[in-house]
Amino acid sequence: MKFFLSIITVFLLTGCSTVDVRDYRDNVPAFNIFEYFQGGTTGWGIVQDRKGKLLRQFVVKIDGNISESGELILDEDFVWSDGEIQKRIWTISSDGEHILSGTADDVVGKASGESYGNALNWKYYLDVKVDDSTYTLYLDDWMFLQPDNILINKTAMSKFGFHVGDITIVFNKTKQ
Predict the structure, then answer these.
(1) pTM value?
(2) pLDDT for residue 9
(3) Residue percentage of the chain with pLDDT more than 70
(4) What is the average pLDDT across 163-176?
(5) Kindly report the CA angle at 147 between 66 and 173, in degrees rounded to 5?
(6) Region 34-39: what's the mean pLDDT?
(7) Cβ atoms within 10 Å, residue 11
(8) Which of the four, 64, 72, 87, 97, has the lowest number of CB atoms within 10 Å?
(9) Which of 121, 93, 129, 126 has its CA nearest to residue 107?
(10) Are 111 and 101 in contact (CB under 8 A)?
C-alpha cells in the first residue's frame, strides 16, 4: 500500500510541475511584445475542446500602439467562422525587464506574464460567453517567436483546474 501511495504522490507532483519561461532565455529570435505588436498584425486561430475536436476558427486583426505613458495598446478585431464579430482592447505594461501585466474588459483582474528569449508566458482569467452564459476560464498562454516574424501562440484553458480546451494562433506582421 505504501508503494502504491508513493507512486501516486510522485505522479501527482510531476503532473503539477510547470515549464519555466526562463528556460528559453537563450532562444532566438528574441521576442519583445512591445516591438512585435506595434503596427498591424494578423492572426489565424483555432479553438479545440479537451479531446482535440475543432470547435471554432477565427481571424484576428490587431492594431498596436504605444501610449504616451509607455503602455502597449492592442486593438483586436476577431471574425469567427460562425460569423460572430468580437473586439478586445488590451492595455499591457512592462513591470520590469521580463515582467508584464495587462488588462482588457473581459479579463478578470490582471493578466501577468514573463518574457525571456523567444518566449512569453501569459496567465489570466477570461470571461467567455457561450450562448446565454458566461464562464470564467483560466488561460495559460505561451507565445514563441519564430524566424521571419512568425509568432506561434498556444493556450491551454481550464476551469476549476480541469483542462477544457486549447487555442492555437499563428501571427504574422501585416505588410505596411
Answers:
(1) 0.87
(2) 47
(3) 89
(4) 91
(5) 40
(6) 96
(7) 10
(8) 97
(9) 126
(10) yes
pLDDT of residue 22: 95
Provide the CB-side half-sphere exposure for 1 (13 A, CA). 0
Identify whether the C-beta of residue 100 lies closer than 8 Å to the C-beta of residue 112. yes
Reply yes or no on whether the pLDDT at 6 is more than 70: no
Amino acid residing at 147: P
Number of H helices, E strands in the chain: 2, 10
> Which residue has 505613458 as its cell numbers?
69
The one-character DSSP state at 148 is G
What are the domain boundaries of the chain?
21-173
Which fold would CATH assign to domain 21-173? Lipocalin (2.40.128)
Q: In whole angstroms, what is the distance from residue 115 CA to residue 143 CA?
A: 9
The better pLDDT of the pair 40, 1 is held by: 40
Residue 130 is predicted with a pLDDT of 85
* Lookup result for grid cell 471554432: 56
Q: How far is it, in rounded angstroms, from Cα 102 to Cα 46?
A: 23
Whole-number Cα distances in Å, 58 to 5, 13, 131 = 45, 36, 17
Q: What are phi and psi of 149, to 5 degrees?
A: 60, 25
> What is the 8-class DSSP label of residue 15?
H
